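Re: [ENG-882] Designed sequences occasionally contain unexpected residues at chain ends

Forwarding the minimal case from QA. Structure tokens:
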């Protein structure tokens, strides 16, 4: 299952629709806190998370998961590109860091890396 966390409802819906069209099971959350409270961490094979959100940021969530001993392949998405944030995320193990709006192929490439190199294509 792909867990998608973004406080922007439009981005959540659009990305969820893309993931569903690729055949993935998707769970969406409007905040990092909602994801943590959902009990879906262990069901998540890949996490797609916004960097900047009210409350806990995507980078904070990444660190929380590391502190909990959970290594979930993570793809960050952001409308506020920062090389510092990108470097921090990648050094902590993120498999991708995409600026919004991101292209479908860029997300598919990141998902392929996150899911052990499986080749994905839009049907």
């Amino acid at each position: 299952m792909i867990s998608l966390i973004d406080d922007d409802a439009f981005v959540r819906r659009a990305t969820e629709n893309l993931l569903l069209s690729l055949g993935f099971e998707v769970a969406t959350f409007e905040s990092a806190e909602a994801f943590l409270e959902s009990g879906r961490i262990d069901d998540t094979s890949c996490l797609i998370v916004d960097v900047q959100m009210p409350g806990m940021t995507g980078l904070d969530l990444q660190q929380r998961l590391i502190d909990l001993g959970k290594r979930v392949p993570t793809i960050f998405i952001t409308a506020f590109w920062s090389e510092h944030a990108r470097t921090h995320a990648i050094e902590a193990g993120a498999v991708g860091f995409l600026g919004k709006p991101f292209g479908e192929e860029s997300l598919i490439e990141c998902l392929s890396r996150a899911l052990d190199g499986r080749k994905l294509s839009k049907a």
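QA comment: On inspection the terminal residues look reasonable. Residues 83 and 105 are 21 Å apart (CA to CA). Proposing we downgrade this to a documentation issue.
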